[in-house]
Recover the amino acids of this structure.
């Protein structure tokens, strides 16, 4: 007499197959789908390799469907416009951050071209092309190596 147990999904009785004594779902399609979904969710949360494989599969799908996103953008101009504005905003912010670095780079360039005369100088902090503080530091510049 075969053992009967209750399917975890549909709650109907079923007989587990001898090959699978731990079977918890009957063989109905919906129940097998539910089993797979639960298995997959659990697998994703515990198995890093499996997760990596899944995302590799997504990336490879994108490689095989290179037009998907350009088609999507063509069909969704609002999405594109929003993206473009966000990118411009990011660029604006980045330019602001770069100002100091740009000035320093320019200073380096001019220093290497025309040698700076040793002596005492007033050093002021510059921010966005403007002198940030009126109080300046007195610094002395000496030539270390005549390059
Ligand atoms: Zn079932």
């Amino acid at each position: 007499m075969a053992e009967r147990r209750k399917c975890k999904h549909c709650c109907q009785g079923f007989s587990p197959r001898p090959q699978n004594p731990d079977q918890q779902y009957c063989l109905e399609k919906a129940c097998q789908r539910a089993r797979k979904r639960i298995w997959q969710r659990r697998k994703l949360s515990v198995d890093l390799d499996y997760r990596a494989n899944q995302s590799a599969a997504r990336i490879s799908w994108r490689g095989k469907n290179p037009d998907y996103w350009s088609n999507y953008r063509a069909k969704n101009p609002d999405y594109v416009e929003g993206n473009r504005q966000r990118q411009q905003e990011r660029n604006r912010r980045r330019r602001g951050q770069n100002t100091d670095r740009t000035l320093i780079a320019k200073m380096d360039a001019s220093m290497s071209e025309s040698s700076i005369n040793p002596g005492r100088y007033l050093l002021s902090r510059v921010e966005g092309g403007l002198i940030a503080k009126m109080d300046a530091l007195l610094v002395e510049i000496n030539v270390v190596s005549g390059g």
